[in-house]
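Teaching soon. Invent one.


***
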Amino acid sequence: MVTAALPRLVPIAFFAVVLIWSTTPLGIVWSSETVHPTLAVLLRMLIALVLGIGILLLARIRLPCTATAFKLYSFSAIGIVGGMSLSYFAARYLPSGVMSLIFGLSPLLSGLIAQRLLNEAKFGMMRISAFVMAFIGLAIVCSSKLSIDEDSWIGLVLVLIAVVLFSLSGVLIKTVKINIHPLASTVGALVVSTPLFALIWLIFDGNLTITSWQDRSIVAIVYLGVFGSLLGFIAYFYILQYLNASTVALVTLITPVFAMILGALLNDEAISQSLIIGAGFVLSGLSLYQFGEQLLKQLRQPRHSHSLQDRSNK
């Protein structure tokens, strides 16, 4: 059996997703240093929306405006608005590496929510063990941060709610049956989300004190608008078309490690022993969740084949 070769852009797109997702938490921290978090995320969305609409027009990609399409855009907005706005507020209390690590729990939470909303099979012992292991790691990380900084609990609560909303959004999207271009889906979600970000900015800040903005925050906003909110999503949807889910899931295992390293090197974020231990538990739990059942089947398969062979010999 001959397998079709992957397009050359697939490895590049996979590397791009890992790089963008690894740098996004640090970009969030930097962009909201001198710009209010609500304005930083609004500007990021505006940049992505303008570029996205421009590409749609140039490529002549249709943007569906049906009720089903708006349902998809609205479900996407739950993760974009809820997940991002809370993450920006959390960035004032947590290092970028810890934020990335907590967001790595999204596959586990998505699986749990999918049991309720999509009637998916309940977790087996392997996935229950993975879930427990990951949250033990999270507890270690949280206890470490709380003992160092009294205000860290605010950031931890905010980012946990953000992950839940992001995971809920991903599951709800699966309930919508529609044939749509990935770029159109992204732009449609931005069309719905951007006015909500503007409303949040007006409620929590509403000021345009441009004179206080520093170069690092401005560059981070532009970077997140172009790469984090547009090209990152396009690359992610692209690799989903050619790679299986378990391969794409490697992104959630790789990015927290890179994010913590980048935070330490570029933003002087401390990596304590308890953070390393907690991260080890979380990443081990994620690995077990994604690949544990497959590994168990492979280990059982030789025994099964041997037992069949023994029966045939008899």
Remarks:
- The radius of gyration is 21 Å.
